[in-house]
Design brief:
about 425 residues, alpha+beta, MutS, DNA mismatch repair protein, domain I, 5-stranded antiparallel sheet, about 40% helix, globular
């Protein structure tokens, strides 16, 4: 009998579910959340799926949907989704100290085998009661089997499934009915290759000889075979490795052609990625800027240029990173093009505590530290758009900002968009 089991907590249609938490009027209705710049559907509720809406379907096609009036379309509200995800993780931490944030809507846990089902039910009820988010929980001896259990839990009334309580013969029968394409880590290419060996179900994959799988595929697929057999091969990453690089790249809401706009955009993106560096206690010694027209038919001849600049020493302060990005953007800019994508890349990151400060003057360090402290203090209270250097400090929304024509309020991350409760 195992002392501990794996559990995975998965939020149903995360983005749409968060929107329904704060707007009771759209609960039970078909809800679709759109991608960056309101391009296509990235998530939807079961009601929207029943109307024939598909993930990845372009927004312009859905405007003429025969039942358009019934469907609620919303722009992605990433700050709100991230905050709700963090609150969910805080709840999970209160249940067990051993957890791993797998994605914004999923987390793995290690829970005691004794009373595992009751623990899973308690987790589901606590997240539902405290946050209003509908979750399903899969429990099993391995991560891969826990993912299988989570898919089964979706069809169960209690939304919890524990494969550790199922007899081995029954588990094998369950895997025989489970498509290999739905197995965690098995993508379309592997599915096609496995089909050539007459492997179409998770059960057939689990019965393959691990040594043969390793020779003909990869050690990753071999590990999946063992995981499907209930042998844990993928440990819990309670402390994920520190980030080695960061990227902030966006498709602009409106193409930019003016040099000042390009420079302003690069500078703003650099400040945003600098804030992310500070949150993760990392520092960058090299800044790279990428400009692209995106190769659009309407943008004329495509252009795709990039450049880099080394700093005197690694930093995560907003001013030096913004200045470096602005200089690079000005150097890379070429007139006559419509720039649709701009990105900031910070490779070879180091730990914040490794920065010595010996290559910068005391005056510059004092300025950078004061500016950074002021920016962090204001943005932590009033949101990331409240203050910044240059264009990032202008409160009027830039035309190149991401299109969010139907974005809901921030609700939990901006004081001016807090939910207001009215007394009856």
């Amino acid at each position: 009998m195992r002392d501990e089991l794996f559990a995975i907590v998965d939020v149903d249609s995360m983005y749409a579910s968060v929107e329904q938490v704060f707007d009771p009027r759209i609960r039970g209705r078909p809800v679709c959340v759109l991608s960056n710049n309101d391009g296509c559907v990235v998530t939807m509720t079961a009601e929207a799926k029943a109307l024939g809406v598909e993930r990845g379907q372009p927004w312009f096609q859905l405007r003429n949907h025969p039942r358009r009036a019934e469907i609620v379309f919303l722009s992605s509200n990433y700050g709100l989704y991230g905050d709700m995800s963090a609150r969910m993780l805080a709840i999970l931490q209160s249940v067990t100290p051993r957890w791993e944030a797998y994605s914004i809507d999923e987390a793995f846990l290690r829970i005691p085998a004794e009373g595992a089902t009751a623990t899973a039910v308690r987790i589901r009820e606590r997240i539902g009661g405290w946050l209003g988010l509908p979750v399903k929980v899969g429990v099993a001896p391995s991560k891969t089997l826990a993912k299988v259990a989570a898919k089964r839990a979706k069809q169960r009334t209690e939304r919890v499934d524990n494969l550790a309580e199922v007899e081995p013969r029954r588990v094998q029968a369950i895997l025989d009915e489970f498509p290999v394409a739905d197995v965690w880590g098995i993508g379309p290419r592997l599915t096609a290759r496995l089909a050539a060996h007459e492997v179409g179900s998770a059960g057939q994959l689990a019965r393959l000889d691990p040594g043969w799988v390793r020779r003909n595929y990869t050690v990753v697929v071999e590990r999946t075979v063992r995981e499907l057999r209930g042998i844990s091969c993928i440990p819990l990453e309670c402390s994920p490795p520190p980030r080695r690089q960061m990227v902030h790249c966006r498709a602009l809401g409106k193409p930019v052609t003016d040099e000042h706009e390009v420079v302003d955009t690069a500078s703003t993106f650099a400040q945003r990625i600098a804030a992310k560096l500070r949150r993760h206690h990392r520092a960058a010694g090299l800044v790279q800027v990428w400009l692209s027209s995106g190769g659009s038919y309407y943008s004329g001849a495509p252009i795709d240029v990039h450049g880099s600049q080394a700093l005197l020493e690694p930093t995560n302060a907003a001013r030096p990173l913004a200045l470096a990005a602005a200089r690079l953007a000005r150097r890379l800019y070429q007139p006559g093009y419509q720039y649709r994508r701009i990105g900031i890349i910070l490779p070879d990151l180091v730990a914040e505590h490794q920065v010595t400060g010996m290559w910068t003057t005391a005056k510059n360090r004092t300025i950078d530290e004061a500016l950074t402290a002021a920016i962090d203090s204001v943005t932590s209270r009033y949101g990331k758009a409240a203050i910044g250097l240059g264009r990032a400090g202008v409160r009027t929304r830039a035309e190149w900002e991401m299109k969010q024509q139907v974005r809901s309020p921030a609700y939990t991350t901006r004081w001016d968009e807090l939910l207001v409760a009215h007394a009856r």
